[in-house]
Amino acid sequence: MGRPSSGTTAPPLGRLYDVGERRLMLHRSGSGGPSVVFLPGAGLVGLDFLNVQEGAAAFATSVLYDRAGTGWSTSVPLPRSAAEVAAELRDLLRAAAVPGPFLLVGHSLGAFYARRYAQLFPGEVAGLLLLDPGHEDILDHMPAQAAELAEQMRPDPARMPELTDEQRRAAREAYARLYAEWPAPVREALIDHHLASWRTSLSETENFETEIYGELRDGGPLPDVPLIVLTAGGVNPYWAKFMPEEVVREAHDGVRALHAGIARSVPAGEQRVIEGASHQHLHIERAEEVLRAIRDLTAAA
Predict the structure, then answer these.
(1) DSSP three-state, residue 236
(2) Sequence-separated (6 or more) residues with CB below 8 Å from residue 144
(3) Would you say 27 and 62 are in contact if contact means Cβ atoms under 8 Å apart?
């Protein structure tokens, strides 16, 4: 069993655990199994999911964590392979003595990591909940205009300027509204972190086409466990700003089809479309639907 780290940069909630030469943040609540483990999307950290983590803790062991390179965990070069992230999570869960098997709740990029964990360690996974997940075949299901736009607008984190004071004020106000229900110390620390580390989401996703997509395609099937895909049914505001309505509709249809394919990949798979929900904050806007899916999966597992 690992021990809590004595690192000086303590998170506002949770503890730092020594995992090899790294210190990783983990916050655990509740009891019972299977243990529910949240894997944040790019640009998000464990505490972004505090609302649903606390809800899940009412009926199961419920865990938030920050992978290395994000949040309050040790800084590492980004991007990373999905296999490395999955193995690191496994080591952390063992160090913190979180009981398996695990119901992995992966959002966006975190869904890639959840699926990779299930490919690598199928016997440790009790179920999968994928929140508007990314998909390795996304470019094949996008209209040409959408794919071209994504390539043209691909940002270079190193060349992007710092936020202006006006941008920081606007972002702080938006985050304060978003996290209004979070405890004040957690809310303020979370806002400060996001304003200081907004480039992380860009860095984490740089290896999609060069590494992550291939890992998932060649990684083998998912285990035969209960699986639910929650698809955000709201309009992507970025697409809507730059593309005609019919192209946006076609792009969303492509995403829904890919999510349906993930659900069909296991016998007990299901897709649920959450109309009006956004990709980035589905778990905040529609927390009850997320918790309902977690309850359904824990019961099935």
Answers:
(1) coil
(2) none
(3) no
22-29 vs 35-39, strand pairing mode: unpaired
Cα 208 to Cα 216: distance, rounded to the nearest angstrom: 10
DSSP assignment string, 31-79: --SSEEEEE--TT--GGGGHHHHHHHTTTS-EEEE--TTSTTSPP--S-
| Segment 17-42 mean pLDDT | 96
Q: Residue 220 phi/psi, 5° resolution?
A: 100, 175
Residue with tokens 């299977």: 34
- Rounded Cα distance between 288 and 292, Å, is 6
pLDDT higher than 50, residue 17? yes
In three-state secondary structure terms, 274 is strand
Whether the Cβ atoms of residue 36 and residue 63 lie closer than 8 Å to each other: yes
CA distance 255 to 92: 32
Q: How confident is the model at residue 152 (pLDDT cuts 50, 70, 90)?
A: low
Residue 294 near residue 37 (C-beta atoms within 8 A) = no
Q: What tokens appear for 6 in the block?
A: 């004595």
φ, ψ (nearest 5 deg) of residue 5: -75, 155
DSSP state of 279: S
* Residue with tokens 């466990």, as numbered in its chain: 225
**Nearest CA among 255, 267, 215, 276 for reference residue 84:** 215
Say what the pTM is: 0.93
CA 200, 289, 228, 61 torsion: positive or negative?
positive
CA distance 198 to 191: 11
